[in-house]
Amino acid sequence: SMVSWLSLTSWLTVLAATSLARAEEVDLGSLFQRVEQMSAGVLIGRETAVQAHAVADQQRVALLPNLALRAQQQRSQTVAVNSANQANANTPAGRFDATLNGSLNLLNLQQLATYRAARRGADVADADAASVLQSALAAAGNFYFNQLRNLARDAVLAANVTRAEELLKITQRIVDVGASTLTRIDVTRAEALLAQARLAQLQNQTVMKQGLQQLQLILDMDAMTPLTVRPATLLPAATDSSAPQLMVRARAAESFFKRRSDWQRASLAVEQAILDEKAALYQRAPALAL
Fold first, then answer.
1. Which of the residues 48, 83, 105, 208 has the least number of beta carbons within 10 Å of its own beta carbon?
2. What's the Cα-to-Cα distance from 200 to each of 157, 194, 203, 214, 243, rounded to whole Å?
3. Checking phi first, is residue 178 left (phi over 0); if not, alpha (psi -120 to 50) or beta?
4. What is the DSSP-derived secondary structure letter of residue 242?
């Protein structure tokens, strides 16, 4: 029928596109590099930080001198007509006018606090961008290691299926020969074990496909592009234990919390809120301008 022919054609198109797509292989380093360059959330966070810095620059304009120059050049010539209808042109006259106006805020506490709050807002946006990047890298690394685990698990499950098939064959042969106390119920049990092993393998393969789809989504890749992961060799760094440092509160805040983007973001957000409050209070303060 026409419906079956269209379905077959679409399936052939999908298979052809899949076969023509170039397979990509990623390891942990290339994965992190691509996340940093291609992740939509990371790029949006960076653009938000750029906009925040632009807003802070706009607030700074009010603190700088404001100059305005207006210049005008005029050139005129008069013509006189005598009684004999003869025109006599006078010498052309030129005139130049210029006005220079300037203003400068010598003391404006509200504007100064607003500018400082905008700068803190830009720092908050930078910390947000760094936090988004770390979250994206953590999510990508989580999917990466889960995929490696599922690949290793698939080999184990495939071996379980092979073992269950061999046990079923052995049980069937023993029952057919009748040289043991095994009965048909033992064959049924072997078949059930084989079905369970195949089910576990299929479930793991489904999880593997879902993990690859999540990686493709994070990497902003085409869903039709085949993707494989390459194991990474990780060597643990030989460092001292961090337990003694965590026992001292000041040392813990200095060594660990200041390296966390979310902690920096929260601290800068508190400073920005304090400056916003000061700017609101300084609305009643006098201002001095020149």
1. 83
2. 7, 10, 5, 21, 41
3. left
4. S
At 31 the three-state DSSP class reads helix
Cβ(87)–Cβ(224) under 8 Å?
no
**Whose structure tokens read 């805020």?**
105
User: What angle, rounded to 10 degrees, do the helices at 261-281 and 109-177 form?
Assistant: 150
| pLDDT-wise least confident of 68-72, 157-161, 261-265, 275-279 | 261-265
Residue keyed to tokens 């074990």: 193
DSSP three-state, residue 86? coil
- Residue the block writes with tokens 């001095």: 288
- C-alpha span between 163 and 143 (Å, rounded): 30
Distance of CA 203 to the CA centre of its chain: 31
CA separation for the pair 211, 97 (Å, rounded): 74
Give the SS3 label for residue 224: coil
The string of pLDDT tens digits covering residues 176-203 is 887 667 788 888 999 999 999 999 999 9
Between the alpha carbon of residue 70 and those of residues 12, 25, 101, the distances in Å are: 73, 64, 9
Provide the 10 A C-beta neighbour count for residue 116. 19
Query: Within the chain, what is the greatest distance between any pair of CA atoms?
Result: 150
- DSSP strand pairing (24-26 vs 227-229): parallel
Which pLDDT tens digit goes with each residue over 227-262?
888 887 665 555 565 566 556 666 666 677 777 888
The three-state DSSP-derived secondary structure of 147-209 is: HHHHHHHHHHHHHHHHHHHHHHHHHHHHHHHCCCCCCHHHHHHHHHHHHHHHHHHHHHHHHHH
Contact, 211 vs 147, CB < 8 A?
yes
Q: Which residues on adjacent β-strands are paired with residue 88?
A: 80
Yes or no: say if 143 and 166 are a contact pair by the CB < 8 Å rule: no
